[in-house]
Design goal:
Blueprint lengths: L1 E3 L4 H10 L4 E5 L8 H4 L8 E2 L15 H7 L13 E4 L2 E2 L2 E4 L8 H15 L7 H5 L2 H38 L2 H4 L1 H18 L2 H6 L5 H10 L17 H22 L1
Parallel strand pairs: 2-6
Antiparallel strand pairs: 1-2, 3-5, 4-6
Pfam family, one: DUF7089
């Protein structure tokens, strides 16, 4: 299921600087959530596995089945929304996993995604939004489910956590021009590609051209690129969010949904 991925250049240098023990792997198949049997294959390429212990009561009954499964007692890795690169700290050492869906992507962009995941493993933050929100996910769902549904709430939670991580990772990315120029250029280029899509985002939501959860996903992905966000998403690009985390995210969602209703 997994094989070690050869890395070199900037990616090797980033790993050496931020998380030298991280194992970078290729996955044989695409996945959203690895079932226990597949996840246990990580034991073949790591020293040990320490599965997460999460509280099922954090989730409302309306939560998507895949999320319910992740919070269950089985060892699982990954959730929808991870994109082409997933990472886990449930193994020792931590793993960064590249999925086959990225085979046709530019090598420089894939290298940046791997470098980004390496930095994320070094932050000491949860690998998924579930542990970030904890029992506050129920509050988030109570606020947002009536407007965007359980799947929209899930998508919004992924986006909000992406923004929270982005506030931290961009501090690293902004300094990479001299030491890791290829990864820096890929980071900057991805940001420039996002920039035009942000300008009319509130208008698209107001006109019903883009739903709120999808708009949040786009805006929150721009945080790590240090782009200027339109209201109401600009409130997520603040020191207050970094300081107060999930409580701030839930309160932001509550106030924003009230304004949109």
């Amino acid at each position: 299921m997994f094989s070690e991925r050869a890395v070199d250049g900037d990616v090797t240098a980033v790993r050496d600087a931020y998380a030298p023990d991280v194992v970078v792997l290729n996955a044989a198949t695409d996945f959203e959530t690895l079932d226990p049997a597949a996840a246990e294959d990580l034991l073949l390429v790591t020293d040990s596995v320490d599965p997460l212990t999460l509280d099922p009561s954090w989730l409302p009954d309306s939560a998507p089945a895949q999320l319910q499964r992740y919070v269950g007692g089985d060892f699982t890795v990954g959730l929808p929304g991870d994109g082409g690169v997933a990472w886990t700290t449930q193994t020792e050492p931590a793993c960064v996993i590249v999925k086959p869906r990225l085979e046709t992507s530019p090598e420089s962009f894939v290298d940046f995604l791997v470098a980004e995941a390496i930095v994320e493993t070094s932050l000491g933050e949860p690998e998924q939004f579930v542990s970030f929100f904890g029992d506050r996910y129920r509050h988030l769902a109570a606020v947002t489910d009536p407007h965007v549904g359980p799947t929209g709430t899930y998508q919004l939670a992924v986006a909000l956590y992406d923004a929270y991580l982005g506030l931290q990772t961009r501090v690293a990315f902004e300094t990479w021009a001299d030491d890791y120029p290829d990864c820096y250029d890929a980071w900057a280029d991805a940001g420039e590609r996002l920039r035009p899509r942000l300008s009319d985002l509130p208008g698209e939501v107001a006109r019903g051209q883009t739903d709120f959860a999808a708009a949040a996903e786009l805006a929150c992905s721009a945080v790590k690129h240090d782009l200027e966000l339109p209201a109401p998403f600009a409130a997520l690009d603040t020191a207050a969010y970094e300081d107060h985390g999930a409580d701030y995210a839930v309160r932001w969602a509550e106030k924003t949904i009230e304004q949109l209703a």
